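Appendix C reproduces, verbatim, an entry submitted by the partner laboratory led by Prof. M.T., so that reviewers can inspect both the input and the predicted structure.
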Amino acid sequence: MTTTAEPAAHGPGRGRLEAAQVWTATLTGLAALGISLFNLAELQQAPKVSVALPHLVRIEPRAPQNTVHLFVQPTITTRFRAEDVEVITAVRLQLKAAAPKGGRPRFRWNESGAWNYDFASNRLKYDRTADPSPLVVTQDKPQQPTLLFDSSDWTLRAGRYDGALVLHRASSRTPITRPFCLLITPEALRTFRAAPEREFYELRNDNDTPSPTAPRPSCYTF
């Protein structure tokens, strides 16, 4: 006597399970494809550059050739990786006195440098490191240059000055502008006028105690 095995039953539950597995695999593949396309699109976009001003700038009121030097060290970064790089082609400093007849001194980016500690004199010393030249910014290569701006027509006066650091970039005709203000008190003005040549002074914008009603930094003040 011979017997034959009966075919396994294929109930409706098993069919639904197989269909669900197929749809899950399809959806997983589509999600992976979407993420890949999104990452590719992000890589092909121009880098999104962020610029932050420091809490401290330095002024040299009696620089050589009757000029005034202003030292600014911004932080230039991009948080996202991209195939292309951003190039800061030029940096300009704008400054205008708040008083109607206070004037608008003209500045030029003279050079870049670095501050080094001099153990012999127990003071900071400025050293020139580069000519004014384009800055390449990538995610793994942020820039924090010390920029020396000089002005031959700035007659220091007490009062408030409204300024901006303007960074021109290769990827866009629209520059990145970071406004700031600078306050020279009568006491600071007396110090600057009596200063010897090549003397540097620090101006800070974090002297005031932060508060919820005034979260932004105040003016740079001596």
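The two ends are 110 Å apart (CA to CA). Additional entries are available on request from the coordinating office.
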